[in-house]
TrEMBL record:
Entry-linked Pfam families: SBP_bac_3
Family: Belongs to the bacterial solute-binding protein 3 family.
InterPro entries noted in UniProt: Solute-binding_3/MltF_N
Superkingdom as given in the UniProt entry: Bacteria
This protein's record includes keyword Signal: yes
Record-linked PROSITE patterns: PROKAR_LIPOPROTEIN (PS51257)
Name the UniProt record assigns to this protein: Polar amino acid transport system substrate-binding protein
Length: 282
């Protein structure tokens, strides 16, 4: 049974991936989220700048930024920023690439905007940062109907009771989890995986008792694999920081940055913002 769960889930992931069009290393589109190719986010009456158009670079990471089966640019971050740019009366075009290549393009002013960025001193040498536009957060997921585990209030409660927690090796889960991972008596209760899909299979097979995953990524995994009757969010969340928009020093003015932040605040206090978050939540 364990072999079948793991095999079928990984096979399903491969099939879903195979159905998507293969992205090029550099894909430029003028399509806003879920719109036809000829549509833009321009609103001329609102535009404070003439010829206001931004090139947004994205490195595919569902559900934040990706291309759907129809080849359209989509995602939570894409929708949020598109709503802000529309309020500015500007247009977006999209350029897909690897994160490393896009950072270089931002430095040179070939790309104007990158999303989901962490603010560092090194990056501030070549980029402006917006105000925070969303939180970075991990959630703990468990098997549905596991009432005993559902009563635990902290990760320490899981560990004290001998529960095993799946993690992805390259993720940074914040200082509290890092302390548990570094502890000689607590680290043995964490099980590493190379990708989130493997943690899903291990949970279904009973090899682990829960797993930590980015809250929106976990919700997407469960929804895409139709596992809502088997896996649920426990309720334990870990806030690891904030996400920012990066703007190129070479192509974006401080006035444009200020206008972006003004419109961002309007979006964040609107129902549109909550609707977008809810669309991608568990």
């Amino acid at each position: 049974m364990k072999i079948s769960h793991t095999f079928l889930l990984i096979l399903l992931s491969c099939i879903v991936s195979a159905c998507k069009p293969e992205p090029s290393s550099e894909q430029t589109q003028s399509t806003p989220i879920a719109a036809d190719a000829k549509t833009t986010t321009s609103t001329d009456k609102k535009a404070p700048f003439k010829n206001c158009q931004f090139v947004l670079g994205f490195d595919a990471w569902e559900p934040y930024q990706y291309t759907d089966v129809g080849g359209r640019v989509a995602g939570l971050d894409i929708e949020l920023v598109a709503a802000v740019v529309e309020g500015m009366g500007c247009q977006l075009t999209y350029q897909q690439g690897t994160w490393v290549d896009l950072l270089m393009a931002l430095k040179e002013g070939e790309v104007d905007i990158l999303l989901g960025a962490s603010k560092t001193e090194a990056r501030e040498q070549f980029a402006f940062f917006s105000d925070a536009y969303r939180m970075e957060e991990f959630s703990l997921f468990i098997r549905k109907g596991d009432n005993k585990l559902a009563e635990y209030e902290t990760l320490s409660d899981f560990i004290k009771n001998g529960s095993r927690i799946g993690i992805v090796g390259d993720y940074v889960y914040g200082p509290d989890v890092s302390t548990l991972l570094d502890g000689p008596e607590t680290s043995k209760y964490f099980v590493n995986a190379i990708m989130g899909e493997l943690n899903v299979a291990r949970l279904l097979d009973g090899d682990i008792d829960g797993f930590l995953e980015d809250s929106f990524v976990g919700a997407t995994l469960i929804r895409r694999k139709a596992l809502s009757n088997y896996i649920v969010a426990h309720g334990i969340t870990i806030h690891t920081g904030d996400a920012f928009v990066m703007f190129s020093h070479k192509s974006i003015t401080l006035d444009q940055l200020s206008n972006f932040n003004t419109q961002l605040e309007k979006v964040k206090t609107s129902q549109t913002y909550q609707d977008i978050l809810n669309k991608y939540s568990y």
